[in-house]
Amino acid sequence: MKISVKKLPKSEVEIDGEIESEIFESYFKKALEKIGENLEIDGFRKGKIPESVLISKVPEIRVLEEMAELALGEHYPKIIEEINKNEKMDAISRPEISITKLARKNPLGFKIKTAILPEIKLPDYKNIAKDITSKITDLEKNISVSDEELENTIMDIRKSRAPKVHLPAADIDGKAIPDELPEFNDEFVRALGPFKDIADFKIKLKENIKLEKENLAKEKTRLKIVEKIIDDSQMDLPEILVKIELDKILYKMESDIAQMGLKFEDYLKHLNKTTEDLRKEFRNDAEKKAKLGLILNEIAKVEKIVADEEQVAKEVAAILEHYKDADIERAKMHAENILTNEKIFQFLENQ
Question: To the nearest whole number, what is the mean pLDDT of the chain?
Answer without folding.
Answer: 90
